[in-house]
UniProtKB/TrEMBL annotation:
Ranges where the Disease resistance N-terminal domain occurs: 5-96
GO terms, biological process: defense response
Domain NB-ARC, chain residue ranges per copy: 180-354
Keyword Repeat (UniProt): yes
Species: Trifolium pratense
Gene Ontology MF terms: ADP binding
Domain of life: Eukaryota
Protein name (Swiss-Prot/TrEMBL): NBS-containing resistance-like protein
Length: 368
């Protein structure tokens, strides 16, 4: 009698299980599509932020809103991917007839969750489709692609990141940084034992990256720390990406190849790896060009306090980025001031006449 009841139940439930398999196959395919979409959006956002930083004053407000919507869509896709992966990991994998009823049980217990995932995927596809349609309707993509290059009079000009050049600038070409540089070096090597956030705050193009680089090149600073890691952050950043970048640079400094497992780690695993590497070391981690006022919330538990004088150096345009660090760390703030008229003239001469008159204004032009 019991066998007949079980057989009857299986006959009733088997079609449901078959339909479930079909549904999951469809979800798997759509999941792969939105995963590819996320990678494309992330690559686009990274490029868009570079362009926006290069020509912040000329970026159209509509374009800014559109990019913001894309970023929010990327966050939603990441959430859906996390939920989907968690659901896949919970799927029963036991073979055989004995596990069939367990599969049926799992089917009904997770019915709501599966439909939420499927619905979420459909919603995000509709959202991305709408964002793309607005892009085409108002020409946002075209505006972004042409914005910074048009301002230079060339539609096909390639954008140049000034921070790259700042990392390789000759110290002799630096003007007006003597006092700020000395203060930063003192904070670096003579500061407290507790981990301290040291910040350089100033307008775009004022030389924050250049100043930070000259400080880290100082022999007293080099000899004081076990190692220095430089991470460029910018407007759009991914925490997992920052952590991977840190680990890769750790291995590079050690002269060893990073394990392939780094590229498969989640945020928690990456955080633990970085923390383990920083243990018992006196270090400097530079986060260059930070825009997000919540950046410290993402990174504070990664950069551990060994009570040995480790430093976090942040360059930013926004003082609020640094103020947000006060809740869990000591901070030192250096706000860059504009160059004096004499310093501005000195810098101009060094740039304009570097290869003609040794960085000095020719006599025949001095009165102009």
């Amino acid at each position: 009698m019991a066998e007949m009841a079980v057989s009857f139940a299986i006959d009733k439930l088997l079609p449901l299980l078959i339909e479930e398999v079909k549904l999951l196959k469809g979800v798997h395919k759509e999941f792969a599509e939105i995963k590819d979409e996320l990678e494309s959006i992330q690559a686009f956002l990274k490029d868009a932020d570079r362009r926006a930083a290069a020509d912040a004053d000329n970026t159209d407000e509509g374009v800014k809103i559109w990019v913001k919507q894309l970023r929010e869509a990327a966050f939603r896709i990441e959430d859906i991917i996390d939920n989907y992966m968690m659901h896949v990991e919970q799927q029963p994998r036991n073979p055989g007839c004995a596990a069939l009823l367990n599969n049926f049980s799992h089917l009904f217990k997770t019915l709501k969750q599966r439909h939420q995932i499927a619905s979420g995927i459909q919603d995000i596809k509709s959202l991305v489709r709408g964002i793309k349609e607005r892009s085409e309707r108002y020409g946002f993509q075209r505006s972004l692609d042409q914005g910074s290059s048009n301002s230079r009079g060339s539609k096909n000009a390639k954008w140049h990141d000034p921070r790259v050049a700042a990392l390789y600038i000759d110290e002799a070409d630096v003007v007006g940084f003597e006092a700020p540089r000395k203060r930063l070096i003192d904070w670096m090597v003579k500061g407290r034992k507790e981990r301290t956030v040291i910040s350089v705050v100033g307008m775009g193009g004022q030389g924050k990256t250049t100043l930070a680089k000259t400080v880290l090149d100082n022999k007293d600073v080099i000899g004081h720390f076990d190692f220095v890691v430089w991470i460029t952050v910018s407007q759009s950043y991914n925490v997992e990406g920052l952590l991977k970048d840190m680990l890769l640079k750790f291995y590079k400094q050690k002269g060893s190849n990073p394990p392939d497992s780094i590229y498969k780690m989640d945020r928690e695993s990456l955080t633990n790896e970085v923390r383990n590497y920083l243990q018992q070391k006196r270090y400097v981690v530079v986060f260059d060009d930070v825009w997000n006022v919540h950046f410290w919330d993402d990174i504070e538990f990664v950069v551990i306090d060994n009570k040995n004088g480790s430093k976090i150096l942040i360059t930013t345009r926004n003082l609020d980025v640094v103020v947000s660090c006060k809740k869990s760390s000591f901070i030192e703030v250096l706000e860059l001031q504009p160059l004096t008229q004499e310093q501005s003239l000195e810098l101009f001469n060094k740039k304009a006449f570097k290869f003609d008159s040794g960085g000095c204004c020719p006599k025949e032009l001095s009165g102009v």
